[in-house]
Automatic annotation (TrEMBL), chain A:
GO BP: any one term: transmembrane transport
Stated name of the protein: ABC transporter permease
Annotated compartments: Cell membrane
Residue stretches making up the ABC transmembrane type-1 domain: 68-257
UniProt keyword list: Cell membrane, Membrane, Transmembrane, Transmembrane helix, Transport
Organism encoding this protein: Kocuria dechangensis
Membrane-spanning residues: 7-29, 70-92, 113-146, 235-257
GO cellular component assignments: plasma membrane
Top-rank taxon, per record: Bacteria
UniProtKB/TrEMBL annotation, chain B:
UniProt protein name: ABC transporter ATP-binding protein
Keyword Nucleotide-binding among UniProt keywords: yes
Record-linked SUPFAM superfamilies: P-loop containing nucleoside triphosphate hydrolases (SSF52540)
Annotated stretches, region: Disordered: 13-33
GO biological process: transmembrane transport
Residue span(s) of domain ABC transporter: 5-268, 289-529
Molecular function GO terms recorded: ATP binding; ATP hydrolysis activity
Organism field: Kocuria dechangensis
Record lineage: Bacteria, Bacillati, Actinomycetota, Actinomycetes, Micrococcales
Keywords for the protein's UniProt record, in alphabetical order: ATP-binding, Nucleotide-binding, Transport
Positions with biased composition (Gly residues): 23-33
Gene3D superfamilies per the UniProt record, alphabetical: P-loop containing nucleotide triphosphate hydrolases (3.40.50.300)
Family listed: Belongs to the ABC transporter superfamily.
Length: 281, 554
């Protein structure tokens, strides 16, 4: 059911559409996202403004396209950074073991115990809102799930016969890590990355909603939600549109990520002796 | 018709998912796909011990799984009947099958530990069939569980009932599995290689246990194995299976005495590992690896840990085959890992007299190589075999990729394989082929010592024989010193010049092979040699049955 090609195609299509539209927003947006027209405030969807206007008379569709750039880039960047850092730390823990593993794992525990949102809020408050401080705020705590997963899987794979054989045969550590261990982690980590991307998208939105993300006149999906909230009753599209986009993109990415994770683990199912060993996380 | 299990004209095939018809109605007409079982007939009467023997991949396990209605998703039952005392299992509904599985049919698996849920105690596993099939609950189920555990030979059933699977040794886990299989008071026991992973002493215990159930309660037994020698002493009838067909079947004596098919003959030959070679006692040769009172302890939570290897001193001479014999948990594998440097000893010294041993990592770097037990696990399932073989050569910068390619092809041919295999993945090879490739991979580094840690235990008897012969050939042609680690006495006897017996981490006996097998000195060695089913060995050595069994023939 989850693997029906219809769903896969639909999710891919939606994502491609959103990414292309957002990337091309300067050229395809019907009007400038910052252009105010106080005479046309809070309009419902119509032919001039497909998704209506907000409380300053700005075109919602244009703002949605423009704001998406910010949300998507931050979420992707944060996913990439946390993924690389977390995987690196996790594999390092598993390979070195001993005190280093202990220190890294305890740090991980401490960070996991702190609510991600609170740490992000604190960091953004201290560093001041902005693109870099948002990425930093997400990365500082965001690597922990990757590290946990990578460490656990790397421990498992390291105990497998082929890694021990490689050691006896004198293969270099680089070879063992990059050719033996990492390919086995790829599937579950991709799945994790997809989940995290969705979460980051929502966290960025939430921070912006609280006024700590992007600053006006720049907008993103979260700040649009915040701005539209007082007028929810008069112009519901203003709040529905960004909310639905965040929801849909997060859903599609998660769905596709899990599919990717499953696909990358099928190659090992060829081997009956090891099927299911590192199948799903 | 007699009662018991009757299987007639069983056809089972494997279909790729795209080949499976979307509107499959199960009609016998659509007999597509790759056949796994083609017209298997077999019967197990109550109180009868039937052995189903065959090489791996011959369809033995699939036969058992068809009986239980537990075929894997892409495998389909195309035709035939499976009846158990009047019930047609091939057409039974799931609810009915659930009453049969674990109830009327008990099942023993090869790897009992994997069949237990690691988070639940043995007792709680046992209470489940007692409740489902016996209607026992609470204290009565608990009491019955203890009875069962005592019955299968646990001296302290209370401890076992409270134990989690990881606290049991391999033999204990298999006995607990027997208790579990008996809990539903089965009419039939399906045993799928339950002793292949156990050493001979434990194997004997399990077989005795199963056989006692047969005698006392009239349970029918279908015993699946690739080892003819194991069951020939117990089985009433033997059926030999090859590529989905029953190629030979008859009373155990008749099949062993006068094998008809080539497959049976191959299995018999493989089972009879005659120590035909004259062992050149290489007393004058210089030692290549010397162990000087090695001790290795593994940290274990709370408990006072017995050292895995305790004060072992041993030397391996040049061009010698040294057998290392011991039960599971005797420290054999730890010893191998110490020699190649996967573990470092807590005390004692390992010295190799050849090559670069100055760095202190193990005996001699690439001069000592190790072949592991599970060939499927020795190769990265995601890596092409060629890459796996080439990897250790990459460190030597002085070769071009063309030279490496030639070298790999040479060695792969030396172990008797087609280099064409190298472009595939490990999943496409059989266990025997993979084990040859592990040997080839080790040989690429030109070792002087090859340690084989149960290298043939996961292989069926015929494949085992060919791999052992390959090792002997390499030993002769390359003057390779071999360390054969095994729990299988026949393998050790077939291969080794000298044998070291390990017991609880200590070296209890070191003797010339023939001296050990004819006159073991240490108590434990005596026990090991006695458990080697001497009756069977005698039968197979002579290819002839003793008189009392000939008389018993129908």
């Amino acid at each position: 059911m989850r693997d029906r090609p219809v769903f896969v195609r639909a999710a891919t299509g939606i994502l491609v559409l959103v990414v292309v539209a957002v990337a091309a927003s300067p050229w395809i947006a019907p009007s400038s996202p910052a252009e105010q027209d106080l005479a046309a405030r809070l309009l419902p969807p119509g032919s001039a403004h497909w998704l209506g206007t907000d409380h300053l008379g700005r075109d919602t569709l244009s703002r949605l396209l423009d704001g998406g750039r910010f949300s998507l880039v931050i979420a992707s960047l944060a996913t990439l950074l946390t993924g690389v850092i977390g995987t690196g730390i996790g594999v390092l823990s598993a390979r070195r073991r001993g005190w280093l593993d202990e220190v890294l794992t305890r740090t991980n525990d401490v960070l996991l115990a702190l609510p991600e949102m609170v740490v992000a809020l604190f960091l953004v408050a201290v560093l001041g809102p902005g693109f870099l401080s948002l990425v930093l705020a997400l990365t500082v705590t965001g690597w922990t799930p990757f590290a946990r997963l990578a460490r656990a899987l790397a421990y498992d794979v390291s105990a497998r016969g082929f890694v021990e054989s490689a050691r006896v045969l004198g293969c270099s550590t680089t070879f063992i890590v990059f050719r033996h261990i990492l390919p086995h982690l790829a599937g579950p980590l991709l799945g994790q990355a997809a989940l995290r991307f969705g979460q980051f998208l929502i966290t960025v939105g939430a921070l912006s909603y609280l006024g700590l993300g992007v600053q006006p006149p720049q907008s993103d999906w979260g700040s649009m939600l915040a701005a539209a909230q007082p007028y929810a009753a008069r112009a519901p599209v203003g709040i529905l549109a960004p909310g639905l986009v965040v929801f849909t993109v997060a859903l599609c990415v998660t769905f596709l990520g899990q599919r990717l994770a499953r696909m990358s683990s099928t190659r090992m199912v060829l081997n009956p002796a090891s099927s299911g060993a590192v199948a799903d996380a | 018709m007699p009662e018991g299990l009757v299987v007639e004209h069983l056809h089972v095939s494997h279909r790729a998912p795209e080949a499976a018809p979307g509107s499959g109605t199960g009609s016998a007409g659509g007999r597509g796909g790759h056949p796994i079982l083609s017209g298997v007939d077999l019967a197990v009467a109550p109180g009868e011990f039937v052995a189903l023997v065959g090489a791996s991949g011959s369809g033995k396990t699939m036969t058992a799984m068809s009986v239980l209605g537990l075929l894997p998703p892409q495998v389909h039952l195309d035709g035939g009947t499976i009846r158990l005392g009047g019930t047609d299992l091939a057409r039974a509904r799931e609810t009915e099958l659930n009453r049969v599985r674990g109830g009327r049919i008990g099942m023993l698996y090869q790897q009992p530990k994997r069949m237990f849920n690691p988070r639940r105690t043995v007792g709680s596993h046992l209470r489940e069939p007692l409740k489902l099939h016996g209607g026992l609950r609470g204290a009565r189920a608990g009491a019955r569980a203890l009875e069962l555990l005592a019955e299968v030979g646990f001296e302290d059933p209370r401890w076992c009932a409270r134990a989690h699977p990881h606290q049991l040794s391999g033999g204990m886990a298999q006995r607990a599995m027997v208790a579990l299989a008996l809990a539903g008071r089965p009419e039939l026991l399906l045993a799928d290689e339950p002793t292949s992973a156990l050493d001979t002493v434990l194997e004997r215990q399990i077989l005795e246990l199963i056989d006692r159930e047969r005698r006392d309660r009239g349970v029918g037994i279908l015993y699946i194995t690739h080892n003819l020698a194991t069951v020939s002493a117990y089985a009433d009838r033997v059926m030999v299976m090859d590529t989905g067909h029953i190629v030979e079947s008859g009373p155990a004596g008749a099949v062993l005495n006068a094998p008809q098919s080539a497959c049976t003959k191959a299995l018999l030959d493989a089972a009879a590992l005659n120590p035909a070679r004259t062992a050149p006692s290489a007393t004058e040769a210089r030692p290549v690896v010397v162990l000087d009172s090695i001790t290795k302890r593994f940290p274990s939570n709370g408990r006072e840990a017995r050292p895995a290897v305790d004060q072992v001193s041993l030397d391996l001479r040049e061009g010698e085959i040294l057998g290392v014999l011991g039960q599971s948990g005797s420290g054999k594998s730890t010893l191998a890992r110490l020699i190649v440097g996967l573990e470092t000893p807590d005390s004692g010294r390992i010295t190799g007299t050849l090559g670069a041993d100055a760095d202190g990592t193990g005996a001699a770097g690439s001069h000592v190589q190790l072949v592991f037990q599970d060939p499927h696990d020795s190769f990265d399932p995601r890596m092409r075999l060629r890459t796996s073989l080439e990897a250790p050569l990459l460190r030597r910068r002085d070769t071009t990729s063309e030279q490496r390619r030639m070298r790999i092809h040479e060695v792969v041919q030396e172990v008797g394989l087609d280099p064409g295999l190298l472009d595939g993945f490990p999943g496409q090879c059989s266990g025997g082929q993979l084990q040859r490739l592990t040997i080839a991979r080790a040989l690429l580094l030109e070792p002087t010592v090859l340690i084989c840690d149960e290298a043939t235990s996961a292989l069926d008897a015929v494949t085992q024989r060919t791999v052992l012969d390959l090792l002997l050939r390499l030993h002769r042609n390359r003057r390779l010193s071999l360390v054969m680690i095994s729990h299988d006495l026949s393998v050790i006897r077939y291969m080794s010049h000298r044998v070291a017996v390990l017991f609880q981490g200590r070296l209890v006996e070191l003797a010339e092979t023939e001296d050990l097998f004819t006159g073991p000195r240490h108590e434990h060695s005596k026990q090991l040699v006695a458990a080697a089913l001497p009756r069977v060995c005698a039968i197979l050595d002579a290819h002839r049955l003793p008189q009392e069994q000939v008389d018993a023939l129908p």
